[in-house]
Amino acid sequence: MAADILGELNFRMQKAVDGLAKELATIRTGRATPALVENIMVDYHGIATPLCQIATISIPEANLIIIQPWDRTSLRSIDKAILKADIGLNPLNDGNIIRVLIPLLSEERRVELAKLVSKRVEERRVVVRNIRRDCIGKLRGIEKNKQMSQDELENAITQVDEVTSDFVDKVSQIGQSKEKEIREV
Fold first, then answer.
1. What is the pTM of this model?
2. All residues at 6 or more sequence positions from 97 whose CB lies less than 8 Å from its CB, including other chains
3. Fewer CB in 10 Å around end: N or C, the chain?
4. 99 contacts: CB under 8 Å, gap ≥ 6
5. Going by CATH, does the domain composed of 2-25+106-183 fall within 1.10.132.20?
6. Hey, what CATH topology would domain 34-101 get?
7. Radius of gyration (C-alpha) of the chain in whole angstroms
8. How far apart (Å, rounded) are the C-alpha atoms in residues 144 and 50?
9. Cα separation of 39 and 49, whole Å?
């Protein structure tokens, strides 16, 4: 029973950490990355479709994204979707491909983005702690039903706290590396 709960704890916390990494990848750092545009929803023949499903996204230079749609009729829709996404990027459509130049970030914008990263990291720490609370509640319920001794409960709670501490550290490390990336000029 306790092993199942600890396994679920690990799984849920890992999902929270992975979600943070994906979320932070979409934050612009002055360097081109496909994550900036791949999940932008494009109106493709009346259906909202992620950009990565209708085009090839490549990074030929550190500050340039090239988007080559498989269907050239979707160029205008992709162009509109990037502008509508309000991520501070201006696409250049030449009739065959779309070029997106990544402008350098101002110091003021870097500070704003660093604050945004800090906020998202703190939200994930709260998620990890809530998962911990739920897990401990389940363990206490098992102990209350006499399916686990008090000593086993204390050992399990110690394990939960160790796992939680590890995942909070992972969240912090991801946040620190993203902030460092943002602050690089």
1. 0.72
2. 66, 67, 68, 69
3. C
4. 64, 65, 66, 67, 91, 92
5. yes
6. Gyrase A; domain 2 (3.30.1360)
7. 22
8. 48
9. 9
Encoded amino acid at 75, one letter:
L
Vertex 68 angle, CA 71 and 48, to 5°: 60
Query: How far is 29 from 166, CA to CA, in rounded Å?
Result: 27
Whether the CB-CB separation of 45 and 78 falls below 8 Å is answered with no
Domain(s) of CATH 3.30.1360.40: residues in the chain: 34-101
3 state DSSP class of 39: coil
